[in-house]
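hey can u check if this looks right to u? its 662 residues, i copy pasted from the old doc so theres a chance i mangled smth
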Amino acid sequence: MSGVDEGRDTVNGAARGSDFLQLAVADVPAGGKAEWLAGRLRAAIADGRLPVGGRLPPTRVLAAELRVSRGVVTEAYRRLAEDGQVTGRRRAGTVVVAAPFTHTAPPRPGAEFGVGDAGGHADGLRGWGADGPGEDDAGRHADGGVGGHANPLGTGGTDGPRAQCVEGHAEGSGAGDIDGAAVDAAGGHPDPPGTNGADGLRYDGTRGDRPGGAADRCPAGPIHDTPAHRSAVLVDGVPARPGPPGPFHGAPGQQGPARPIHSAPAPRSHARPSRTTPAAPNTAGLFGGAPGGGVFDALRAAPAVVDFTPGRPDLTVFPRAAWLRAERAVLAESAAHHLGYGDPRGAPRLRRAVADWLARMRGVRVDPECVLIVAGTAQALTLLHPVLRADGVDAVAVEDPGSLGARQHLAHGGLATPPVPVDEDGVRVDALRATGARAVLLTPAHQFPTGVVTTGERRRELLEWARAGGLILEDDYDAEHRYDRPPVPALRALLADRVCYMGSASKLLAPALRIGWLVAPARYRSALVDAKRFNDLGNAVLPQLVLARLMESGELERHLRLVRGRHRRRRDAMIAALAGQLPGAVVHGAAAGLHLTVTYPDDVPDTEFAAAALAYGVKCHPLSWHRQSPGPPGLVLGYAAGSPGVIADGVARLGSALRSLS
């Protein structure tokens, strides 16, 4: 399979694959899965993505994500153990102890990571934690074969030159994975998505969403509206019928006619909105005219009952206990000199942890020395401004629609931002060439705000454009939050010397941490380190060390598995509520991310809709904020931060606001 073919492997609408090494089971013969898995693991050990001392996930976790029998994974581990490449270390788990000897060079970055090869995982790993107290993954072989995964690897479980990457982590606890084929690894869903659903949702299989045939697909692009679609809410071009808020229930074919959904009662402290509800104070000009640099600050300060601002994860489940444990451990093991000024590139321990994370989870192989720790993607763009201008780049093309905030950051740095249209396959490369820009800012894993995943064919076109002298600034936005499609590897895995990769912990943990990472082509690294040095001398060291410990111990992957299930249920609640309150609306980007984009057939401008929504107590973004060219009106609605009841109440308020304008 090509290095840029898109993974579409699903079972009953659920992603079939794992973020771990971007594994997917597409096109693997039924009798050859163990051999295939063992081969992929050997390749990862050979090229360094699985370093000596690294751990493999528990067999039940990996089997659940790949949606194969546990025996397939156990057999693959057994073969590696017989080869002497891994060993079971009881409480330390299954550990890589030796890399194979080879006369050939390791595969080039991205060669084995097809966007389909690299596939996707069902619902998140991971703390490489326990399958259950006292339980072994592969039966605790007496000869030291594949063992259990009761605790993360500690100092005594490391071997070889990379041992320092995981030192001092013996106290972490396992996750205690649920066994059983019908249980969703991401958050306890008893049924794979797509098997049930009172709204009858089906996803367009050509876009990496849930399976759907040609008859299910809407002919228009990611933002479309046709008369045939105005009778019910559409999800990525497929009609959706309303149902109760929360996860979908009921078998297909049991849905009744569309009917309004009654939202949950508002909290006692919140009065129900009415048409006489006054507008929020000091926000009269918030949605009037072109949005300025302070528009997001003004919206955050505006009072509201329900906040649908996009880009906010569920902060109520921030892993406070795990963070405190890691912080205490970091303080206990840190000498006095560790509290001085740090390396402006970032703490070496975090750079190693990020390099290992990217190799395991995003298919990006990078040396820790090439990782620059920054204060989020926003600072990464700010540091790039002078570096790009010094290289003769005076314009960075941007997706249209695309992030207003990113566009503002580039413009503040004196860079032009010519728009490039986005269709159902991603950014249009023919239009990109027409701009004449030498660089482009993309969100290929989950385009903001439409949610489109850049397809394999479009990726090939982008790589051809980059090889001809272009530079891709890859914002790996929302890549970890997937529900109904396999993951796709980062573009950086396919063409390292023409891609600047940017990621952060903002959606993984919390924006307040202000920790991100930038991996740039070699020709820019020295200038970027200088820019970081003279900007702030480097990020605060202690939070970096705490985050590194969470990455090393598996706590971050456990947290990701938890929030992925919660976010998925909240997405389902919003889609169900929209079906009753905004008939005729079209929902985009439902298969991943933390927000939905909703377009509607009314002639009401979306800025007026957003202003009315705020008067009814709901904060959201009008889609036109994120456009440079005209297009259908819409709203961008974040769902991750609200409970299903709050979401239903907020959508009911949106319905009231739109009816008041119509």
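The longest strand covers residues 499-504.
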